[in-house]
Amino acid sequence: MLNIVLFGPPGAGKGTQAEKLTNKYNLVHLSTGDIFRANIKGETDLGTLAKSYMDGGNLVPDEVTIKMLEAEVDKNPNAEGFIFDGFPRTTPQAKALEDFMKGKGTTISVMMALDVAEQELIKRLLSRGKDSGRADDANEEVIANRIGVYNNQTAVVADFYNKQNKFQKIDGMGSIDEIFGRLCAAIDAFKVQL
Ligand code: ADP
Fold first, then answer.
1. Which of 37, 89, 166, 182 is the catalytic position?
2. Is the CB of residue 181 less than 8 Å from the CB of residue 125?
3. Residues lining ligand 1, CB < 6 A?
């Protein structure tokens, strides 16, 4: 299996690139943010719980997030591989994912981290907020909190994969196609070793 963790701060372009990679490599795309938003829209109990955290730009508690993600993986027993987008966002989530995948006889192949300057992130998020209807993209205070949460709680997850020699930094500046080309080159180089 080819299991990719697509990593990077809010606004780095994970969702956009994950969509393109999913089509090219025939993977299943699991975005925890998208799954939470679908639950909010469907007014499920999970959605109600997640909403209060998400609107403020804070993380949904690990226990809830991990359980949900594992259930989504289990819904795709025939997948050739997964792209995890927005997960793991904490070290406990990374550990849980590792144990869970091991239990299935597989593992995370690589973490690809999109590297984008902070000013560019804020610009992209505010621009997305104009038409996405996402409450967490609408104001600069919440955006600043999300970037703070990323720096304080999420950035360390890169170390977890770095220690396993699975960390790859990808330049996330430039056009969507340029960045996609870089990701594909990294995956293709990696697949040769598989
Ligand atoms: P972005 O990466 O652009 O901030 P996402 O759509 O990935 O947006 O996530 C939106 C929100 O969903 C996060 O701010 C957080 O509240 C919640 N969320 C998503 N993934 C996780 C996760 N793995 N753990 C905890 N909360 C999460």
1. 89
2. no
3. 10-11, 32-33, 36, 53-54, 57-60, 65, 86-87, 89, 93, 136, 146
pLDDT tens column, 29-87:
999 999 999 999 999 999 999 999 999 999 999 999 999 999 999 999 999 999 999 99
Domains in the chain: boundaries: 2-189
Tokens (6 digits) for 43: 């007014």
Q: Name the CATH code of domain 2-189 (choices 3.40.50.300, 3.40.50.720, 3.40.50.10240, 3.50.50.60).
A: 3.40.50.300
157: nearest Cα among 92, 98, 60: 92
Q: Is 146 a catalytic residue?
A: yes
Residue 153 pLDDT class (50, 70, 90 cuts):
very high
**Taking the model in full, what pTM does it have?**
0.95
